[in-house]
Amino acid sequence: MARGRRGVARDRQGVARDRGQVAIEYLGFLPVLLIVAMAAVQLGLIAYTAQQAGTAARAGARSASLDRGAQDACAAAVSSWLAGGTSCGTSGGGDEVTVTARVDIPSIVPGWDFGSAGRSATMPVDH
Q1: Residue 16 carries which DSSP code?
Q2: Does some domain include residue 3?
Q3: What are the UniProt keywords, alphabetically (predicted)?
């Protein structure tokens, strides 16, 4: 194998060889793949948190309709790693009670804040 003027490896016919080109292209594309993967995981976390907020609101409304208080039921209804960022507010009167649950959305990128997911549920008051 001979080297040409510019130091490019050439085979016997004088054709330049592209050794390692695929590896370099892969390394250039790797950050894009990582960003897409992190975005997919973050979207999954947002959807999961919204689902957990709905579960917390229903559990809190059920508990408040039985006159047991909503906050403890809300926190107990979500996953343990989300329970610390869960808050419930109760409103209503008469024959029904409405509970609004808010759950903080976790972030996989430190320093980014996605806010919280909120859901409401209404239940009839049990007499």
Answers
A1: B
A2: no
A3: Membrane, Transmembrane, Transmembrane helix
- The amino acid at residue 1 is M
What is the enclosing helix (H) or strand (E) of 76? helix 71-77
Residue 118: which domain range?
19-124
Q: Locate tokens 């001979």: which residue?
A: 2
- Contact residues for 2 (Cβ-Cβ < 8 A; gap 6+): 10, 14
**Residue burial 35-50, b: 16+ Cβ < 10 Å; e: rest:** eeeeeeebeebbebbe
Domain assignment present for residue 12? The answer is no
Which pTM does this prediction carry? Answer: 0.76
CB distance 101 to 60 below 8 Å:
yes
